[in-house]
Amino acid sequence: MTALQKERILDALYEQWDVLDQLLSSVTGDDWFTPTPLPGWTVHDVAAHLIGTESMLAGISAPHTTVDVHGFAHVRNEIGAFNERWVEGLRGRPGTEMLDRFRDITERRRSELAQMTDEMFDAETATPVGPAPYLRFMRVRVFDCWMHELDIRDALGVAGDEGGVRGDTAFEEIMGAVGFLVGKRGKAPSGSRITLELTGPLAREIHVAVDGRAAVVDELPGDATTTITLDSRLFTRLAGGRVKAADHRDAITLGGDTAVGKQIVDNLTFTI
User: Fold this and answer.
1) Is residue 239 a contact partner of residue 231, using CB atoms and an 8 Å limit?
2) Where are the domains of the chain?
3) Are 46 and 38 in contact (CB under 8 A)?
4) What does the pLDDT look like over 135-166, one tens digit per residue?
5) Helix, strand or coil for residue 133?
6) Element (H, E) at 5
7) Where is the Mycothiol-dependent maleylpyruvate isomerase metal-binding domain (predicted)?
8) Full-model pTM
9) Burial 125-156 (b: 16+ CB within 10 A, else e)
10) For the residues of 26-42, what is the DSSP string, one character each?
11) Are 88 and 51 in contact (CB under 8 A)?
C-alpha cells in the first residue's frame, strides 16, 4: 500500500458517503418503499444494508429479528443472510431515523479509519472477495456503496454523476473481474482478442487477450476478433446483475465474431 493509494481510496469512500447522505436526505414519505433493481429490496432496505455493513465493521451487531431470512428467495448464501438480518432488523423504522443512523455510523467509521495505522490497512482480513488487505476492503466498500447509490437513483428516477473519483475507484473492482467474465463465464475461446469500448461517464477501452486464460492487457497482439460497444452505465448494471443484456440488445453493438460477443455480454454479472 502506498500513501497515495490510501488517500485516493479513503477520499473516494468519504465522498461516496457524502453523496449518499445527500441522496437519502431527498427521500420522503412512501418513496422509501420504492422497489429497487435488487430483488426483494426497497430504497429503505438498501439503506438498511448500507448501515448494516458499516455497523458490522464498527463491531455493532444486527438488531434482533425472529424472521428466518434463509427462507427468502433472494438470499442465496451467508453474506446474503447477514445483509437480510439488518434489513429485517431495521424494517419499519422511519426514514428520518434511517438517515440519522446512516450519518451516525459513517461519522463513526470516518473516525475509526482516521485512527488506523498503515500496518492495519495492510493487514489481511476477511472480505467479500476473499482474504485481502483491509485497504482493499475499503475499495470494495466504495464499489458497494456506489452501486447502491445507483440502485436508489434508478429506483427513484434521480439522475447523478456516475464518473469522477468515486466511479473510477469503484470501477477498479469491476476491472479486476473482466478477465474472469470474458474467459470463464463468457467462454471466449483461446486465441480470442476482445475489445470492450465503453462510452459515457466511464468511457474507456478494455482489451482482453485469451491465451488459454483470459487476461486484461494494455494492447492486443493483433486486431480484435470481437468488439463490444456500450455505454458504461449499462455495462456497470450488467456487471452488477441489475439488468440483462437480452433486454438491451439495441444499446449494445457487436463487431467481428458476434457469437462470442453475445456470449460475453450475456454473462457479465460478477456480483454475488
Assistant:
1) no
2) 3-157, 175-265
3) yes
4) 999 999 999 999 999 999 999 999 999 999 99
5) strand
6) helix 3-25
7) 15-153
8) 0.93
9) eebeeeeebbbbbbbbbbbbbbbbbbbbbbbb
10) T--GGGGG-B-SSTT-B
11) no
Cα 180 from chain centre: 16
Produce one character per residue of 245-265: b if its CB has 16 or more CB atoms within 10 Å, e if not. Answer: beeeeeebebebbeebbbbbb
Strand order in the sheet with 253-256: 213-217, 204-211, 193-199, 226-231, 253-256
The H or E element that residue 132 is part of is strand 132-133
Residues in contact with 130: Cβ distance below 8 Å, sequence separation at least 6, in sequence order: none
Distance CA 137, CA 134 (A): 5
CATH 1.10.10.10 fits 3-157, yes or no: no
The CB density around residue 157, as the number of other CB atoms within 10 Å, is: 7
Q: Kindly give, in sequence order, each residue whose CB lies less than 8 Å from that of residue 82, ignoring residues fewer than 6 positions away.
A: 52, 56, 62
Residue 142 near residue 9 (C-beta atoms within 8 A): yes
| pLDDT bracket for residue 270 (50, 70, 90) | confident
pLDDT at residue 69 in the model: 64
Q: Which amino acid is at 42?
A: T
User: How many Å apart are CA 118 and CA 258, to the nearest integer?
Assistant: 47
Q: Which CATH architecture has domain 175-265?
A: 2-Layer Sandwich (3.30)
The residue whose grid cell reads 427513484 is: 156
Sign of CA dihedral 53, 55, 56, 61: negative
Q: How far is CA 57 from CA 19, 52, 60, 62, in A?
A: 20, 9, 7, 11
Report the C-alpha gap between 259 and 188 in whole angstroms: 10
The length of the chain is 272
